[in-house]
């Protein structure tokens, strides 16, 4: 079905351009009735939406929704894509018609881009959104005046009732009959020309609207101002900020827990069933423990990521996210980051992959680079099972609040490490690029639930598509490493003990000694490179835990960990060695899917390989230092 | 026919720096930024120059007209593009925590600008 959405090079398609917050995406959704797909712009990481206009309008051309831009002189990667696409850099050539979307309440500001487009001789149809808001403010909107002055068709649209959509589609259909003109490069205006044009824009706006929008404070704006008095307050603002973010964070973990358990349980059963049916053959073992387990490993995080995206979209649609980013800009810019780095860093606490994808909106290359670099240091949820195991070992039989406080401490520690890396990069990276915030704070409004749900599903699907193949490949590699060469072994434990993974663990044992652990933990660390949470199941296998029930595995694994001895007869898991492992897991970059996505987002292998080496080296060194110093001061 | 009042002839325009018949003399040709001096019947009236100030020097709640945009070319261009342009009336709403971004509103739009970005705006 998706194939049919691709515009045929011979047929017409319409490119939508407009300033951010002009109502472009809302209009796109209305015109296509949400029947669209997101496409990756060739040679970059930026997505744009392609959709066919809905049948109810009696037409069938294709629409492309480019990222929002204020002008034809791009200042961020997203704007660059919008302008490049406009100038026919897409695989299907130049758009027949450019649909310019302007917010009626922001007319004089949004005329700037329209003037540039007219000057460049694009075939233009103008859609003026929020016309109903203009009427609510007792403004007469004179479409014809605007049409005559600019020489392009203009359609006024109501954002709530859908009035004007049919006229817009008809106007677009008419525009296809126009003979295509040769498009000129963006016009370069000097300050004098700009001043004349801006004065003209104001005059035109005054002529088109009966009342001056500068004098009539809209109802929405007034309400927004009242809300902002609290939410952006120098003292209360940060308090609300922390509360809202904590709420999102808690709901990501709390609401996602049951569906994650279902997915986990379902895949465990499926895997068991396949293994039983295949009765121990190599193929069934591969299907059960290689295939099904790896698909489960990808899907188990889907609920968390879906809720995270839902929360972020909710904040974005309501208008708060822009404010949150501006609010946190000052502290983040001291670390060489941007207010817009906030969403990637927040998402990084669930999963680094969507977090890296969220870094695209950062306009400065340098700030985007630093953000991408430190995202893997955020405490992603794949680390949680590992922390849970290690903390329950450390605080065995003690009050429940102790491991909880320790977990908060681990999160704090990962933030500190991230801030440290960021400020070191900020100090040493050349500061050749202009960094800017300039963030529009849209009026607060009631979010459209349908749009948010749809958008979150789409983004989650893009996570599955991105992370899935990489996790799958590594899960298969891990399956081979843990199954062969002794795949005919009678038990799982025996097979693992004599596998390539165990051999690798033994091979790196000299490295593990300073961390206070032996080759068995080394094997666990090696297998964690497929996905961090695999560490727990690998430990269960290494320490010969064979219980079926999950709770029993946990408690008997803890028992075996307590009894485990090193070759010289001392306890293997002690306070110092477990703390060393926690430190290792906080910093180490073990997730190969993250490395794969990082390559795409950075645009080269250099940075991800640097991340991989640096973070693992620092993790190892700090773990060794921690273990040895703890032992020096008398901890076992 | 209605009685028409005699139309007053428009006043002569006196060039600055020349002694005009009114006895006014100014130093308007003096260097920019210095006081404007008006000589009138041996008295000197000193009018201090109108100083353009960055909006960052103003306090939240300030409302005024943008006189000029000065600063890095790229930043100024972006300010033009978003509609923060000379002669625009601008309202300095508030400052965010830790001396953070300024919240400026104009023409029903609200923007958050960093200190160095807002410094380009002279009012």
Number of helices of chain A: 28
The assigned structural class of chain A equals alpha/beta
- Please write the string of helix (H) and strand (E) elements of chain B: EEEEEHEEEHE
Instruction: Find the CATH superfamily of the domain at 2-216 in chain A.
Output: P-loop containing nucleotide triphosphate hydrolases
CATH level-two architecture of the largest domain in chain B:
Roll
Report the count of strand segments of chain B.
9
Low-confidence stretches of chain A: 1-10, 212-217
The termini of chain B sit apart by 52 Å
- Most extensive contact: A-B, 47 and 35 residues
- Side-by-side strand order of the widest sheet of chain B: 4-6-7-8
Helix content of chain A: 55-70%
Shape of chain B: elongated
Give a written overview of the molecule.
- The complex is a heterodimer of chains A (636) and B (123).
- Helix content of chain A is 59%, strand content 6%.
- Chain A is an alpha/beta fold and 636 residues long.
- Chain A has a domain of 215 residues: P-loop containing nucleotide triphosphate hydrolases (Rossmann fold).
- Chain A has a 7-stranded mixed sheet with strand order 2-3-4-1-5-6-7, with helices on both faces.
- Chain A is elongated, with a radius of gyration of 28 Å.
- Chain B is mostly beta strands.
- Chain B folds into 2 domains: 36 residues, no CATH class; 68 residues, Roll (SH3 type barrels).
- Chain B is 11% helix and 30% strand.
- Chain B contains 2 helices and 9 strands.
- In chain B, the strands form 3 sheets. Chain B has a 4-stranded antiparallel sheet.
- Chain B is elongated and about 55 Å long.
């Amino acid at each position: 079905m998706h194939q049919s959405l691709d515009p045929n090079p011979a047929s017409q398609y319409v490119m939508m351009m407009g300033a951010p917050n002009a109502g472009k995406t809302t209009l796109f959704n209305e015109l296509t009735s949400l029947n669209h797909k997101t496409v990756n712009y060739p040679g970059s990481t930026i997505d744009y939406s392609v959709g066919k206009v809905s049948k109810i309008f009696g037409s069938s051309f294709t629409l492309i929704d480019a990222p929002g831009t204020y002008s034809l002189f791009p200042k961020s990667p997203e704007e660059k894509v919008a302008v490049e696409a406009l100038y026919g850099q897409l695989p299907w050539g130049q758009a027949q018609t450019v649909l310019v979307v302007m917010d009626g309440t922001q007319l004089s500001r949004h005329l700037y881009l329209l003037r540039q487009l007219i000057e460049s001789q694009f075939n233009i149809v103008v859609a003026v959104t929020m016309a109903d808001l203009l009427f609510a403010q007792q403004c007469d909107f004179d479409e014809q005046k605007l049409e005559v002055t600019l020489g392009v068709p203009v359609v006024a649209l109501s954002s709530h009732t859908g009035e004007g959509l049919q006229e817009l589609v008809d106007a677009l259909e008419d525009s296809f009959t126009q003979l295509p003109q040769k498009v000129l490069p963006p016009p370069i205006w000097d300050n004098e020309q700009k001043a004349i044009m801006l004065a003209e824009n104001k005059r035109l706006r005054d002529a088109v609207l009966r009342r001056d929008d500068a004098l009539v404070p809209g109802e929405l704006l007034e309400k927004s101002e009242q809300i902002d008095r609290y939410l952006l307050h120098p003292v209360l603002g940060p308090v609300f900020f922390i509360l809202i973010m904590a709420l999102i964070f808690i709901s990501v973990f709390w609401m996602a827990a049951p569906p994650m358990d279902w997915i986990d349980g379902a895949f465990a059963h499926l895997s068991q069933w396949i293994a039983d049916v295949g009765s121990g053959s190599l193929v069934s073992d591969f299907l059960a423990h290689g295939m099904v387990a790896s698909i489960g490993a990808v899907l188990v995080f889907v609920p968390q990521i879906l809720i995270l995206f839902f929360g972020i979209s909710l904040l974005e649609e309501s208008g708060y996210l822009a404010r949150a980013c501006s609010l946190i800009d000052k502290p983040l810019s001291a670390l060489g980051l941007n207010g817009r780095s906030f969403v990637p860093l927040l998402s990084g606490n669930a999963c680094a992959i969507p977090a890296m994808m969220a870094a695209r909106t950062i306009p400065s290359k340098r700030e985007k680079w630093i953000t991408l670099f430190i995202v893997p240091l955020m405490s992603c949820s794949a680390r949680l099972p590992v922390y849970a195991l290690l903390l329950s070992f450390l605080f065995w039989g003690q009050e429940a609040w102790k491991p909880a406080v320790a977990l908060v401490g681990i999160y704090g520690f990962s933030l500190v490490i991230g801030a440290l890396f960021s400020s070191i990069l900020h100090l040493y990276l050349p500061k050749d690029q202009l960094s800017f915030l300039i963030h529009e704070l849209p009026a607060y409004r009631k979010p459209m639930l349908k749009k948010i749900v749809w958008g979150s599903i789409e983004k989650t699907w893009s996570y599955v598509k991105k992370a899935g193949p990489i996790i799958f490949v590594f899960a298969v590699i891990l399956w081979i490493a843990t199954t062969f060469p002794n795949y005919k072994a009678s038990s799982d434990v025996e097979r693992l003990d004599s596998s390539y993974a165990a051999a690798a663990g033994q091979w790196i044992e000299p490295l593990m000694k300073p961390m206070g652990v032996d080759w068995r933990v080394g094997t666990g660390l090696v297998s964690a490179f497929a996905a961090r949470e695999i560490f727990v199941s690998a430990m269960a296998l290494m320490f010969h835990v064979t219980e079926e029930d999950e709770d029993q595995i946990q408690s008997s694994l803890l028992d075996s960990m307590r009894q485990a001895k090193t070759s010289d007869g001392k306890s293997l898991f002690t306070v110092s060695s477990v703390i060393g492992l926690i430190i290792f897991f906080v910093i180490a970059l073990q997730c190969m899917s993250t490395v794969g996505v990082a390559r795409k987002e950075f645009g080269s292998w250099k940075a991800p390989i640097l991340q991989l080496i640096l973070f693992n080296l620092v993790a190892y060194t700090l773990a060794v230092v921690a273990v040895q110093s703890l032992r020096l001061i008398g901890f076992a | 026919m209605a009685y028409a009042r005699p139309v007053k002839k428009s006043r002569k325009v006196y060039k600055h720096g020349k002694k005009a018949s009114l006895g006014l003399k100014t130093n308007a040709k003096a260097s920019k930024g210095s006081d404007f001096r008006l000589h009138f019947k041996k008295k000197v009236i000193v009018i201090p120059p109108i100083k353009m100030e960055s909006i960052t020097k103003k306090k939240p709640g300030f409302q005024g007209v943008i006189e000029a945009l000065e600063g890095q070319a790229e930043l100024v261009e972006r300010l033009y593009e978003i509609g923060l342009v000379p002669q625009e009336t601008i309202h300095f709403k508030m400052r965010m925590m830790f001396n953070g971004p300024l919240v400026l509103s104009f023409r029903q739009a609200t923007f958050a600008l960093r200190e160095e970005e807002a410094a380009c705006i002279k009012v």
